[in-house]
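Continuing from the previous page of notes. For each protein in this section, the sequence appears first, followed by its structure tokens. Read the first protein now.
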Amino acid sequence: MTVLLTDQRTIQTAEEVVTIRQAVRQRAVELGFNLVDQTKIVTAASELARNAVQYGGGGRVTIDAVEAFGRRGIRLTFEDDGPGIPDVELAMKDGYTTGGGLGLGLSGARRLSNDFTIQSTPGKGTRVTITRWR
């Protein structure tokens, strides 16, 4: 996989979640994503950024324009140094929440992405990487 362009941002506030949504949409437009795919990657980015603020105490995101096997895509890597997720398998189930929400953030982001990986260590933080291909 080749990284064509990269952008790193911090996520500490709800306002920065909005800024990240805008940056992801802009990158999707630049890469020629149709409106449906733009909406999917922006929605996934919003959920993961909000999770980083709400559960991870803030964090950072790397927005990469990537190319592999003749396809272009957007890869987003969200990282935080928060408490981590004790049971990732449980956290990935629809409806599971520790914060009173709908429990669709992680599982929804997975459904809206073509590629999804999550790594979490209790006491050390969480890293979620998603990619949406055009």
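Done with the first. The second protein uses the same format. Note its length before scrolling.
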Amino acid sequence: MLTLSAATVIYCVVVGAVFLGLWLWYDRRDHQRFEQERRKSTFHCIRCDALYTASSSQSLARCPKCGHENGRLRF
């Protein structure tokens, strides 16, 4: 049978491991979402004045509203 102090230590270790696991899982998930969003380029349609994003590998993209092909914005 476990003593009260040993059971308390085991409980604290299990709770700490659960919190550490959740922290690592959410950190990795948020980092992946950030990287996906960061790798997009912004485009501005000169025909309908809309702003939209597309993957960064494209230098030209069609506007989702009017279909006009626009170049990537450069800052």
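What the second structure shows: Helices lie at 4-38. Residues 1-38 form one domain. We return to this in next week's lecture.
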